[in-house]
Amino acid sequence: MIQELIVSTQNKLGVAHLAPMGIHSNGDDIIILPFRPSTTLNNLLETHTAVLNYCDDVRVFAGCLTGRRDFALIPAEKINGVVLACTLAHTEVELVRIEDDATRPKLFCKAIHTVNHAPFMGFNRAQYAVLEAAI
């Protein structure tokens, strides 16, 4: 299944980066497929960690495309990373294997910690339109 969410990563200096992305999940298998070149790819290769933010605030998806990336972040609980403060749930992941590709490498990750913060109430038509435009 492909899940549309916000991937948050950090570089070794602690500079956070947010990116809307469709990740592939099948049970415990999580595959992140960032394009080359990208900040998400660079950060994951550098730190081997990321946070998957299950977010229903479409302003975050739109903001990542328009350059607004000053959303409130809180420290991850089990890895060195950041969580969107407005996220409904998050999963902290660790990179375990890479299938290299010139365009879009496959980064296989394992879930380290998952937390549910609030229920998902669904999207309205306008929110779906923003989400589709962002992906």
Structure description:
It is a single chain. The protein is of the alpha+beta class. The chain has a single domain (2-134), classed as Electron Transport, Fmn-binding Protein, Chain A (Pnp Oxidase, Chain A). It has three helices and eight strands; from the N terminus they run βββαβαββββα. It has helices at residues 39-47, 58-66, 125-134; strands spanning 2-10, 16-26, 29-32, 49-54, 73-75, 82-84, 89-99, 106-116. The strands form two sheets. Strands 1-2-3-8-7-4 form a six-stranded antiparallel barrel. A two-stranded antiparallel sheet has the order 5-6. Helix 2 packs parallel to helix 3. The longest helix is centred in the last third of the chain and has 10 residues, at 125-134. The radius of gyration is 14 Å and the shape is globular. The mean pLDDT is 94.
Indicate the topology.
Blueprint: E1 2-10, E2 16-26, E3 29-32, H1 39-47, E4 49-54, H2 58-66, E5 73-75, E6 82-84, E7 89-99, E8 106-116, H3 125-134
Antiparallel strand pairs: 1-2, 1-4, 2-3, 3-8, 4-7, 5-6, 7-8
Helix pairs in contact: 2-3
Number of helices: 3
Percent range for β-strand residues: 35-45%
With strands numbered from the N-terminus, the spatial order across the biggest sheet is 1-2-3-8-7-4
Question: Describe the biggest sheet?
Answer: 6 strands, antiparallel, barrel
- Give the low-confidence spans: none
Structural class: alpha+beta
The structural domain count equals 1
Q: What is the alpha-carbon Rg in Å?
A: 14 Å
Number of strands: 8
Mean pLDDT: 94
Helix content: 10-25%
Q: What is the overall shape?
A: globular
Could you give the order of the helices and strands?
A: EEEHEHEEEEH
Fill in the CATH topology.
Pnp Oxidase, Chain A
CATH level-two architecture: Roll
